[in-house]
Amino acid sequence: MKRFIFLLLVSAAAIGFAQDRVVFKNGNHLDARVLSIGMTTITLKASIGELQVPRREIETIVFSGSMVTIGLASSEIVKGILSEDSALSVKVETITGPRVINRSDIASMEPVAKMSFDAIGRESADASPAAATGSVPLLRFFAVDKKGTPISGWRPTEIKFKLDEVETPVASVSAAVPGKITLVLDTSLSMKSWMKELTSGLDAFLHAVPPGTKVQILCFNDDVKLLESISNPSELVNKLEFKGGSLLYDAVAAAVGQATHDQEALLLITDGSDTGSAIVSSVALQKVEATDIPCYTIGIAAPPTGSKDSGNAIDKAFLEDLAKISGAAFVMKDPRKADKNPDLATVLKQIAAEMAATDSIQLVNGSAIAPGWHQIEIDVTRGGVKVHCKKQVFYGAK
C-alpha cells in the first residue's frame, strides 16, 4: 500500500508552495515540501496531506531553499528545515526537534542544496565509487586446491593474468588479507532456530581469522542495524532480536556503504529471500560490483533437523551472483541433504582460511590502463587449483 501511494504521488498535481524533489531508492520521485527530517523518518507535505516516510527508502532530496546550515557565534553548527523566519529570530526543524534561534546569535546561514541517504537511512556524502575504490582497482584473488585447502604465497611468475583477453605481465603479488570483516546476519524470525549453531560458528570464526582483524555485525530483519565489534558470540546472539521478515537487499547495500576502504570483506548469512527492501536485487549487486570488496555468502536452505519451522525459500541465485561478481565464494547448507549439511563452524572456519589466503596482483604499467570497465582473468600455473576473483573491474574515476 505504501509503495502504491508513492506511485500515485509521482503524478500528483502541483501544490501551492516551494517544493523539494524527493527521489526514492525504488526509482520513483515526488515533488513535495519537506517539513522535518527526524532520526528515522522524514515528514513531507504533499497535495494529499502529510506523509511520514522512512529515511531508508529515500535516495536523495534536492531542496528548494528550505534546508539550511546555520553557524552560530558560539561556533555551534545547526542544520535543519527553516520553518519560520522573522526579523528577530528563525525557527529550524532539526533532527532532534524544533529550535528557535535569535538572529543576533547567527554568524552565517547557508542553504543546503542536496542530501543523500544510505540503505539504512544515514546521511551519506555524494561521493563517486572512485572515491572509495581509487583509480586503480584492487586485483584480489584466492586459490584452493582439489581438497578445498587455500593456497597463498604466490610468485608473479606463477600467475597468468589476462586483461580483456590479452595476457598482461604481473609485476608483483602481495597479501590482501581483510583488516575488517562485516558479518551481515539475517535475524528474521525463521533464523531463531539457528541460535545455537550460530553461537558456535561465530566463536570458531573469531578464532580462525588473523589476530587483529576487526569483526563487526550488521543484522537485518524488518530493519537494518549496525552493531559493535564481536567479542563474545554467545552474549551477542542471545541479545539479538529475531523477528519479522528480511530486508536482504537493503542490508547488502548498507554493508557496502559503511565500508571505508577496500581492505575489507563482507560475510552474509541468510535462510531466506528479500521481503520488502527499498531497492531491488540488481541495485544491491551493482553497489557491490562498484567496489573491490569480496562478499562471501552462506545460504541456509532449511531449518535444523527436528525443528517445527517449515523453512523459507532461499534466494540462491542472488547469493551466488553476489559471491561471483565480488570474487568470493557461496556455500549452500541444506539440512535435508547429508552431503550438503556442514555445520556452520566448519563453513566459517573455511571462509576465514580463504580470507587469510587472499592475495592481490600489481600489474606492470597498471596505472596506464584506459579508464572504464575491463574483463579480467586470473589463473595459476599449478594444476588442480581453482582461483576465485572478480571477472570485471573498473579503472579510473566512475
Q: Can you put this structure into words, describing what you see?
A:
It is a single chain. The protein has helices at 2-10, 129-133, 195-208, 233-239, 248-258, 281-289, 316-326, 344-356, and strands at 20-24, 29-37, 41-46, 49-54, 58-62, 67-72, 77-85, 89-94, 97-102, 106-111, 114-117, 123-124, 139-144, 150-151, 159-163, 166-167, 170-175, 180-186, 214-220, 224-229, 264-270, 295-300, 330-333, 359-363, 372-380, 386-389, 392-395. It is α+β, with helices and mostly antiparallel strands and 398 residues long. Among the domains are: 1-117, SH3 type barrels (Roll), CATH 2.30.30; 180-312 and 334-339, Rossmann fold (3-Layer(aba) Sandwich), CATH 3.40.50. It has a 7-stranded antiparallel sheet with strand order 4-3-2-1-5-11-12. Strands 20-19-18-21-22-23 form a 6-stranded mixed sheet, sandwiched between helices. The longest helix has 14 residues, at 195-208.
Lay out the secondary structure.
Blueprint: H1 2-10, E1 20-24, E2 29-37, E3 41-46, E4 49-54, E5 58-62, E6 67-72, E7 77-85, E8 89-94, E9 97-102, E10 106-111, E11 114-117, E12 123-124, H2 129-133, E13 139-144, E14 150-151, E15 159-163, E16 166-167, E17 170-175, E18 180-186, H3 195-208, E19 214-220, E20 224-229, H4 233-239, H5 248-258, E21 264-270, H6 281-289, E22 295-300, H7 316-326, E23 330-333, H8 344-356, E24 359-363, E25 372-380, E26 386-389, E27 392-395
Parallel strand pairs: 18-19, 18-21, 21-22, 22-23
Antiparallel strand pairs: 1-2, 1-5, 2-3, 3-4, 5-11, 6-7, 6-10, 7-8, 8-9, 11-12, 13-14, 13-24, 13-26, 15-16, 15-25, 17-24, 19-20, 25-27
Helix pairs in contact: 3-4, 3-8, 5-6, 6-7
